[in-house]
Design brief:
single chain, mainly alpha, 0% strand
């Protein structure tokens, strides 16, 4: 009975944490008029979930979120602008090349689709990489793209997790309101950290050998 009560208490703690984090994510995205708020707010959210997964469960959520928001505001927005511009460029290229029927343009369309898949890898890993490593924006984007290619099973795991969460949020709309961002970020951060550790362990072993 005592174990059950402890389990329920832990569950309630996590529900509260995730709900508070999600509210902060939405509010701080709006604070930057979405265009300038979304990327630093999302980065701050991933920073908090990274700390939780490291075992820092008792951190003051608002204080650390606000600190991360300010810390990453400029860098996250620069990264966001670059990521958005790459997406627009790929969309324009696909729309242009796919409107022609010749073989050459079909080849170009296929190449754009291939690059777009790598771009999806970028979207999956860019925030976990960004908050986990003190590297430049260019190297964060490059590393995020390489992770998707180098660790396909982890990438598939994140995609499957995202699909499951999509069905959960579609079925229970209140879950989307209170846990849409925070639950997604902790799932992506957890699987990404597992990938980071595997890569680190592999290279550590190779160096020892």
């Amino acid at each position: 009975m005592k174990g059950l009560i402890q389990g329920l208490y832990t569950l309630c703690e996590w529900i509260m944490r995730l709900a508070i984090l999600n509210v902060l994510w939405v509010l701080f995205s709006l604070l930057g008029a979405i265009a300038l708020g979304f990327f630093p707010s999302t980065t701050a959210m991933f920073e908090i979930t990274r700390k939780w997964l490291k075992g820092e469960l008792d951190i003051p959520i608002f204080r650390h979120f606000w600190a991360a928001y300010k810390k990453y505001f400029v860098k996250a927005n620069l990264m966001g602008i670059l990521v958005v511009l790459i997406g627009i460029f790929l969309y324009v290229d696909f729309s242009f090349f796919s409107s022609f029927e010749s073989l050459a343009f079909k080849v170009f369309t296929a190449l754009v689709v291939l690059v777009s898949i790598v771009y999806c890898f970028l979207l999956i890993y860019v925030f976990p990489v960004f908050v986990s490593y003190e590297i430049s924006i260019f190297h964060a984007i490059k590393f995020a793209c390489l992770l998707g290619v180098y660790r396909p099973l982890s990438t598939i795991g994140i995609l499957l997790g995202s699909i499951l969460l999509y069905f959960l949020f579609s079925t229970f709309t209140p879950f989307l309101v209170f846990f849409g961002g925070s639950l997604t970020s902790i799932m992506m951060m957890w699987l990404s950290r597992s990938t980071f550790f595997k890569i680190k362990n592999k290279y550590s072993t190779e160096e020892t050998v």
